[in-house]
Amino acid sequence: MAILDEIRRFWDDDAATYDDTPGHRPTSAAVQAAWTAALEALLPPAPARVLDCGAGTGFLSLIAARLGHRVTALDLSSGMLAKLSGAADAEGLDIAVVTGPADEPPHGFDAVIERHVLWTLPDPLAALGAWRVAAPGGRLVAIESLWGDVDPVETVRARAWGTVRRWRGTAPDHHGSYPTEVRGALPLGSGTHPRNVAGMVAEAGWPAPRLVRLRDVEWASTLEQRLPERLLGVAPRFAVVAG
Ligand SMILES: C[S@@+](CC[C@H](N)C(=O)[O-])C[C@H]1O[C@@H](n2cnc3c(N)ncnc32)[C@H](O)[C@@H]1O
Question: 193 is in which domain, residue-wise?
Fold first, then answer.
């Protein structure tokens, strides 16, 4: 599928610098602790068989493996997964990696996790359905943030952040951006709202979706910021948990 080839190329090219952006990896002990506590509370007891979809350089996979879970990381981009494997090896963590599309996952898991991946899927509903088959009777932990034109307050906040970043000369989060036609083909490509994510999770057959606001992660991230960024705050982070 041509669009997946474009997306794979984008992330293979982004792999070298992805972890340079604060937010793409825990930047302080407080942020690390907040993410670890969040994942520990949301996942089944360790050791569970956990599939991290769109695992990237391993943000969630590494935390889950440190918590004692048996983690498989699935991603379209072998470049991103190579970074993940390097980080896992450096810590002596055993994380299996599978290169492939999110809607064709391996099976036999107790939990499926993802962070910031639904927006980039051509068919997020199909992927959520496939993840249910990968973990029948298991748990879903879909971690997202509220961003984009789905919420007027976040639109204003993002504009303000953009202004401050230009003023500071901050490097962009990625080496480039998706072509307009690729972005336009993604159902969540212009923003994720908890309402939409929870609705899709339910429609995909996951039982009893519930919304969890990740306030400690937000707070710890805010503590890292200088003025005036700290006054602007961070986009609300949330998990849709089901099963
Ligand atoms: C924004 S990054 C998030 C990475 C990681 N989950 C994190 O929290 O840092 C999106 C990831 O999704 C992967 N991805 C994009 N489209 C995909 C697809 N259709 N199937 C599997 N992975 C995909 C990309 O290669 C990239 O690693």
Answer: 2-242
